[in-house]
């Protein structure tokens, strides 16, 4: 009895070969990852972290049910991906070294940080912060991720800025140097107010932050 290979050789045909599955290109991989993260952001904002599911994220992203797990093994890892891309990825660089020569710290914050504060609500960053506030007690990992990726890096840069402002005489006391959290207090108040205290009359967080800069640094900034 002839083998399949011998028969194929006699007829001039080649035995069918199993086609190799090509790995997706780096561009396709990045595109899929972005789609999953965007879908996850929408899912988290609509349903909250506790009620969001990986299956629902896959449906929103238009990918197979198991695809999100190839990029993010757990829902917590997916939330971290959202914070990194959608929140920390848009983090304003307020490193003191980026100030222009002779630029006041207050003016630097107006130039760099104020525009980002004006879109906190429209780009979902305020909603993510509120999600961390409301579900962080039940899911402490959300707080850990948010602090590591967003809160602490920004606060560390602001600490250096207010120290410079005090050294250069722009701040008249050590209060903000000792408590740099005061600089971002109106941002957090606006986030809490808009989502929890009075949704019917939301505050403009950009205006709130600008007024705070006026109080701290004066209008010359």
Automatic annotation (TrEMBL):
Residues 1-14 have a biased composition (Low complexity). PROSITE patterns: HTH_TETR_2. Transmembrane segments: none annotated. Residues 53-72 bind DNA. SUPFAM superfamilies: Homeodomain-like, Tetracyclin repressor-like, C-terminal domain. It comes from the Bacteria. Keywords: DNA-binding, Transcription, Transcription regulation. Coiled coil: none annotated. One of its GO terms (molecular function) is transcription cis-regulatory region binding. Residues 30-90 form the HTH tetR-type domain. Residues 1-31 are annotated as: Disordered. This is TetR family transcriptional regulator. It comes from Methylocystis heyeri. The lineage of its organism: Bacteria, Pseudomonadati, Pseudomonadota, Alphaproteobacteria, Hyphomicrobiales.
């Amino acid at each position: 009895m002839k083998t399949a290979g011998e028969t194929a050789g006699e007829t001039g045909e080649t035995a069918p070969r199993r086609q190799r599955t090509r790995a997706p290109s780096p561009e396709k991989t990045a595109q899929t990852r972005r789609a999953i993260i965007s879908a996850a952001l929408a899912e988290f904002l609509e349903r909250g972290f506790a009620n969001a599911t990986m299956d629902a994220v896959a449906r929103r992203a238009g990918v197979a049910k198991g695809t999100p797990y190839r990029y993010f093994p757990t829902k917590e890892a997916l939330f971290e991906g959202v914070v990194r891309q959608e929140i920390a990825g848009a983090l304003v660089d307020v490193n003191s070294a980026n100030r222009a020569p002779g630029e006041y710290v207050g003016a630097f914050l107006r130039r760099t940080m104020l525009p980002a504060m004006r879109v906190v609500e429209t780009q979902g960053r305020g909603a993510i912060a509120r999600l961390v506030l409301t579900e962080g007690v039940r899911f402490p990992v959300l707080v850990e991720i948010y602090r590591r990726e967003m809160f602490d890096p920004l606060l560390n840069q602001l600490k250096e800025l207010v120290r410079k402002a005090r050294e250069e005489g722009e701040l008249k006391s050590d209060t903000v140097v000792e408590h740099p959290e005061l600089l971002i207090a109106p941002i957090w108040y606006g986030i809490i107010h808009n989502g929890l205290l009075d949704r019917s009359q939301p505050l403009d967080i950009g205006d709130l932050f600008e007024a705070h800069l006026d109080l701290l640094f004066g209008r010359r900034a």
